[in-house]
Amino acid sequence: MSRAKLEYIWLDGYVPTQSLRSKTKIVTDFSGKLEDCEIWSFDGSSTQQAEGNSSDCLLKPVFICPDPQRKNAYLVMCEVMNPDGTPHVSNGRAIIDDDDNDFWFGFEQEYFLWNPETNKPLGFPANGYPAPQGQYYCSVGANNAYGREIVEEHLDVCLEAGLNVEGINAEVAAGQWEFQIFAKGAAEAGDQIWVARYFLERICEKYGISVNWHPKPLGQLDWNGSGMHANFSNSILRSCGDKGTYESICEAFRPVVTEHIEVYGAHNDQRLTGKHETASITDFSYGVSDRGASIRIPIGTVERGWKGWLEDRRPASNGDPYKIAARIIKTVKSVEVDTAVAV
Question: Is 181 within 8 Å of 231 (Cβ atoms)?
Fold first, then answer.
């Protein structure tokens, strides 16, 4: 008889930004398969998801991967459900309209490694500031790259767990990093981002370092904020070969700027200023290779004959990838495309 640790992970009901929660379930002779993970429950009154006099919420397993940091263990990402089995109001995954996994997403997750003692990013002195940004992006060396040991450990753990991390790099500001995750299917892309965030938070615990997901933690000083650029495609974008189709899809985003910004992360107005490689939060624009636009059309898409993907550069680092993907899918699906072209 063997015993396994299943770490059930879910998102709480805090607003405007949800946090990760988890607890361990010990099971006997576990197969390692998602279908053998039972629905569990938790006290929703402690997570802003229920009242004390009716506190049970359900955890519905939706994604599983090995947990390389613990012996005989797995991480189990869950949706939060009401006692009657319907999705909880805090459940962003349930609103994704992508049952056939036609949509592919690649999220670029930026973040700051944060020193709780100084309340500043790693690499910032207790008093004052380091050299201006410019030397830190994709850098190497003790005067440029801060926290690499954490970042490398995180990468190894994610890969051992089977997450589809496609790269990492030091970002523009000191103490700022990024990892990228891709999945065929919007829900799984969100699952993997949340699990990767969980691993990063847990790894940082032993270093006494925090992860700062705020999109503009340094205020309006001359330092870049943190985003979570959403690269997305569906079968139409991957195969249409038509510039007009791409422009029609981009234009569909113009009248729903507010609806997108509402789910792209809290405090994003501090980041989307029109500076530091961002478009203004009140504007909408798109362009080939334009990192100052709301949506960038990658040069690779054009070089492939308008067959590829788009990048929405507006989502914030603290955004919920489920809700971001759901809103993007809704907008793209609103476009009537000439099927004679989109083949």
Answer: no
Fold of the domain built from segment(s) 3-91? Ubiquitin-like (UB roll) (3.10.20)
What are the tens digits of pLDDT across the range 102-134?
Answer: 999 999 999 999 999 999 999 999 998 999 999
DSSP letter string, 153-174: HHHHHHHHHT--EEEEEE-SST
Domain 104-333 carries which CATH code? Answer: 3.30.590.10
What residue segments make up the domains of the chain, in order of their start? Answer: 3-91, 104-333
Q: Which residue has the tokens 């299943």?
A: 6
Average pLDDT estimate for 66-82: 98
Residue among 191, 137, 203, 200 at smallest CA distance from 164: 191
Residue 340: burial class (beta carbons within 10 Å; 0-12, 13-18, 19+): exposed
* 211 bridge partner residues: 113
Instruction: Write down the pLDDT at residue 320.
Output: 98
Residue 196 φ then ψ, to 5°: -65, -40
pLDDT at res. 340: 47
